[in-house]
Amino acid sequence: MLKEYINDAWLPVLRHNHLDNFGALWELHKDAWFEPPNYRRGGWSGVIKTSISLPDGQQVGVFIKRQENHFFRSWRNFFRLTATFEREFRNLLNFRKLGVPTLEPIYYCQKTVDGKLRAIIVTRELECYKPFDDDCYNPISQLGRSRRHRLVTTVARTLRGMHEAHLQHNCLYLKHVFVKEEPDGAVDVRLIDLEKAKWRPFKSIITTRDLYSLYRGAEGWSRTDRLRFFLAYRNEHHLSVESKKLARAIVKRLMHKNRRV
Questions:
Q1: I want to staple 110 with a disulfide (CB 3.0 to 4.6 A). Which of 37, 70, 114, 119 is the partner?
Q2: What is the CATH number of domain 130-260?
């Protein structure tokens, strides 16, 4: 069980703000919700956004996610209730270890208080990043050719890197892909919401599942946009036989879902 984690680089900052312990973070702006609590299965989970001071006087934004009695069971720990945040935070650390860009972790802790399992995740705000479903990117065909190419290529390569590490996001929608465009045209990508992510042995299954979810939510994308993205993901100028097979599997799944709807 992962009981507590503190990023060494952030420990002086937390101490400077008197937030280097579970109790202080739990009580901070307790009712000022960025995302109001989601109540389910006898527990709840919510998010606040706040700014904390750096020792030099500057401010930095952080997100504090708190939950109480949100559990999951795995086949490895079937008889032990585990906070869903523990799974999410382990995934976050694993993604970073494997070189997949995601949030910067600051703090994690879980404690049982008055018989209730509480957990906290603190991460740094993604300053100047926007979700890939933001209005400024939708529809993507409105963007200039070179800008669209940079965005699509960088996002596609990021997802390919995740899948090459045999990591499946398992909830891959455009809103979970954050991008930042630099003045020189460079693009940086970060993946968020890793609660359901998992390692899987077969990359074809990972690709089909994740890109199906991504395409299903990309309603403003044309067929050309989707093809361009898939080519960048596959690092090809023309679809290979294997790529065509994967593309057909994704399209088949999309059509099946649409018929059910």
A1: 119
A2: 1.10.510
